[in-house]
From TrEMBL:
Protein name in UniProt: Phosphatidylinositol 4-kinase beta
Annotated localization: Mitochondrion outer membrane; Rough endoplasmic reticulum membrane
EC number: 2.7.1.67
GO cellular component: mitochondrial outer membrane; rough endoplasmic reticulum membrane
Length: 860
């Protein structure tokens, strides 16, 4: 029976206060078990009969109550001191890291050692253990002896944190899916999953306001709309509060039918006035998951509502704590499942915008994006910015989400819901002067219109933008781009220093517009700075010749970042190419919540139909590699991408900001990679270009090592990004270790390095190319030195796993061999030279790029 197996294992360990013989404890348990089994038929006929699972849970709880932790800890410690004194010294030392504990917990077979390490988990910070949560979950599913010792840790953490409960539930759901295909009955992991989902270990939520927040009031009540005018902000807020109180009292006196016509979201956002407590308020109906209700992500918890300036410190209601975020993620995933059935990308984008509007009906809400660690509330989705990404069979999409920072995601108040009709449009040219005058009042504190940390363009950048628009205008032909100065032109230049030449009427008006634009913006500068700039400008006008001005204006026109036009077949290129700071500022200006001081913009990529567990494994491996290289002072660059696994075929990915794929670069710019570098970063001798090439080399070296160790495949130009600083960033690690596209094993090179990459470095004889090979050698040496931190990540996940990357042979043995422990440093250096040469001249790489070009239209 399940009861017999469950009872015989943990009891000898937990009940042994001193080193008592195990057979005696087992005999006592058998007597109790036989008595329980003899009365099983009688109990089953009574209304209080317990199922075998409930009996197991009740029995384990009784054992836990009778067990005193101190004697058990003493017994395991005494056992280790006698049998394994060396291990005990290691576990008690300061060099015992989380990686060592997880590795020994997986490898050891002794129950006493496992139990000691299970309690050792409580000694480490939560964030360090959370990194190894996939490994803990995998051991819990496939190794029963380990699941017994880490069960207390997992359930304790679940009762302390909603985030941890959500992560455990999603990972259990993802990794159990493969086992359930072959399992005959549910195991302990399935019961744990349902216990978490049904909130058996309900997280205890407390609110502890800090002194800093009370003094500085940075996290003020967000349900009070801020006024844009900084001068009259306090008076307007007082008036608005008085009006809201009058409206509330008048609405309470009206008939109940009018109250029902109001939006439930607006009703939930109203503050409590005149001593009205939550128990006297009408409790809204629970509508979790219903996007048409307007409250799909609201769990009806009112424990932390502000009553007469006081707020509860603890949640005492039975509202579901995990459901709001789960329903929010489910809504995003359901949209991704519908999009592949829409025919064209243009229609997919239109369908996506419509679905995002439906979700906005249910926002703001107490939901958040889990891989962003700062506490925040989702208030709105910028639906017009949502874009479908490139994929042949599926439809991943990127969504931009507006959030507000908060103290506590459970207790901090939500902002009042704003209608889309209240979108704040940008100011017109006719009242631009008034806006600048008002802007001058806020320039001292560094804020604009009540914003905090809102970046503003400098005067020089604004002038450059103005000159760019002036050059691109129809009157730009009046400026000659020739650098040759004839004798007549020299005479004209001498006359120009004394009296400016007459301009055509239209160009003169444009010139006056530019001058007026500059004069308006100088109003924000103090008199001393303005006088200095005026003097410098006057001197520069006397020193700089007109030919030099024409040359500089030409450089402004032909250099700088390229903005891609929107392509209906690839709408993501223009979206991803736009600089993040400009996108954030533009969305903030058009958002009804943009006036809130703690407003922020985040982004997420939603993927359906792909197994993101491979991506999560690659993320963990790269995080550890990044730490190793930083500690060993190896100057390489790798950018691990946060992954949120929601199931075995769906999840969220953190997008790389200010980065686009090599395929999009070559398709939209019509340039080679080197010419694109010259266009983006300047001439070959410019500092910006040299820095970008250095970043390119350092990132190429890092990802060459990652691709070699993990045997990453499917490296076409659509899966390689280039950011605005010149770094190469690889994405999509769905094919690695033993998994290959179509199971063909076609890409045979150690990693991808092409002639275009070498051209950016300066050629085969350049110093940067030699530097690239040196970085690969140093990176491999550092990774080999700390191999013990990398191997457990893969070894534990391979145990019992049905992932495609572990489907062929002993994967971990091949990974260990790629560290080349049997080679000296000189031999490894020779091997690196050989790998780089074979990768550069790889025929399979070129053929695979050609195959992707003709089948999927991905540029070579």
């Amino acid at each position: 029976m399940f009861f017999r197996r469950h009872a015989q294992k943990p009891i000898p360990t937990h009940n042994s206060i001193v080193a008592t013989p195990i057979p005696i404890a087992l005999d006592k348990i058998k007597i109790i078990e036989d008595e329980t089994e003899s009365t099983e038929n009688e109990l089953s006929t009574t209304p209080t009969a317990l199922s075998p699972i409930e009996k197991t849970v009740t029995f384990s709880n009784e054992i836990d109550l009778t067990t005193t932790p101190t004697p058990t800890t003493t017994s395991t410690t005494e056992h280790l001191s006698i049998k394994h004194p060396g291990l005990l010294r290691l576990f008690d030392s300061t060099v015992c890291t989380v990686s060592i504990v997880i590795s020994y917990l997986f490898s050891t077979k002794e129950p006493m050692v496992q139990e000691f390490l299970g309690r050792k988990l409580f000694d480490y910070p939560n964030d360090e253990l959370d990194f190894y949560l996939p490994q803990l979950i995998n051991m819990y599913i496939h190794i029963p002896s380990i699941s017994n010792v880490i069960h207390i840790y997992i359930t304790t953490r679940c009762s302390q944190s909603v985030d941890f409960s959500l992560q455990c539930a999603w990972l259990l759901d993802a990794y159990i899916a493969d086992q359930m295909k072959v399992a005959k009955k549910p195991n302990a992991a399935v019961r744990l999953l349902f216990d978490i989902l049904y909130e058996k270990y309900k997280p205890k939520i407390c609110y502890k306001p800090t002194i800093i927040n009370n003094l500085s009031n940075n996290h003020h009540r967000l349900d009070e709309e801020e006024n844009e005018n900084v001068i009259n902000q306090d008076d307007d807020i007082k008036t608005e509060r008085a009006l809201s109180q009058e409206n509330l009292m008048s609405s309470m006196n009206k008939k109940r039918g009018h109250q029902k016509s109001r939006s439930d979201v607006s009703e939930r956002s109203l503050p409590i006035m005149n001593g009205e407590t939550s128990k006297h308020r009408r409790q809204p109906r629970l509508c979790l998951g219903d996007l048409n209700s307007g409250r799909a992500f609201d769990n009806n918890c009112m424990c932390f509502e502000n009553v007469n300036g006081f707020r509860r410190r603890e949640c005492t209601c039975n509202a579901p704590k995990l459901a709001p975020v789960r329903e929010f993620m489910t809504a995003l995933i359901n949209i991704g499942k519908k999009l592949p059935h829409v025919p064209t990308k243009e229609k997919k984008t239109q369908n996506l915008i419509g679905e995002m509007k439906r979700m906005n009906m249910n926002l703001p809400a107490r939901v958040w994006i889990p891989f962003y660690k700062f506490p925040h509330h989702v208030v709105r989705i910028a639906y017009t910015e949502a874009t479908v990404l490139n994929s042949r069979d599926r439809a991943p999409y990127i969504v931009y989400i507006e959030v507000v920072l908060c103290d506590n995601v459970y207790a901090s108040p939500l902002p009042i819901k704003q209608n889309e009709s209240k979108l704040r449009s940008t100011r017109s040219e006719e009242n631009l002067t008034d806006h600048i005058i008002n802007h001058q009042t806020t320039s001292v504190s560094g804020t604009i219109g009540g914003y905090l940390n809102c970046e503003t363009q400098s005067l020089d950048s604004e002038l450059i933008d103005s000159y760019r628009s002036f050059i691109n205008s129809e009157d730009a032909d009046i400026w000659s781009t020739s650098d040759e100065v004839t004798g007549d032109e020299q005479q004209q230049q001498q006359q120009q220093t004394q009296s400016p030449p007459p301009l055509p009427p239209q160009s003169a008006s444009r010139r006056n517009g530019l001058i007026g634009y500059r004069s308006n913006h100088t109003m924000n500068i103090n008199p001393e700075t303005q006088s200095i700039r005026s003097t410098e400008s006057h001197l520069s006008q006397q020193e700089i010749m007109p030919s030099e001005i024409r040359k500089r204006l030409t450089e402004v026109k032909t250099t700088g970042p390229i903005l891609f036009d929107r392509d209906p077949e690839d709408p993501s290129a223009a979206t991803l190419k736009e600089p993040w700071d400009k996108k954030e500022q533009r969305i903030r200006q058009s958002s009804p919540y943009g006036h809130l001081r703690n407003w922020r913009l985040v982004a997420a990529i939603v993927k359906c139909g792909d197994d993101l567990r491979h991506e999560l494994l690659a993320y963990q491996f790269m995080v550890r590699l990044k730490e190793i290289w930083a500690n060993e002072h190896v100057p390489v660059f790798v950018r691990p991408i946060n992954i949120l696994v929601l199931s075995n075929n769906s999840g969220l990915i953190e997008p790389i900001l200010n980065a686009i794929s090599l395929h999009q670069i070559k398709k939209n710019s019509k340039l080679s990679l080197r010419n694109y570098f010259l266009r983006e970063f300047g001439t070959e001798r410019s500092e910006e270009f040299l820095t970008a090439v250095k970043n390119f080399v350092q990132s190429c070296a890092a990802y060459s090592i990652v691709c070699y160790l993990l045997q990453v495949k499917d490296r076409h130009n659509g899966n390689i990004l280039l950011d605005d600083e010149g770094h190469v960033i690889h994405i999509d690690f769905g094919y690695m270790l033993s998994a290959t596209p179509k199971n063909l094993g076609f890409e045979s090179s150690p990693f991808k390095i092409t002639q275009e990459f070498v051209d950016i470095m300066g050629g085969l004889q350049s110093d940067m190319y030699s530097y690239y090979k040196i970085l690969i050698l140093r990176g491999l040496l550092a990774a080999r030195k700390h191999m013990d931190k990398l191997m457990p990540i893969v070894e534990i996940m391979q145990h019992g796993s049905q992932l495609n990357c572990f489907s062929k042979g002993n994967v971990t043995l091949g990974l260990r061999e790629r560290f080349h422990l049997n080679m000296t440093d000189e031999q490894l250096e020779f091997n690196v030279e050989k790998m780089v040469e074979s990768s550069l001249n790889s025929l399979t790489t070129r053929v695979y790029d050609t195959f992707q070009y003709y089948t999927n239209g991905i540029s070579k």
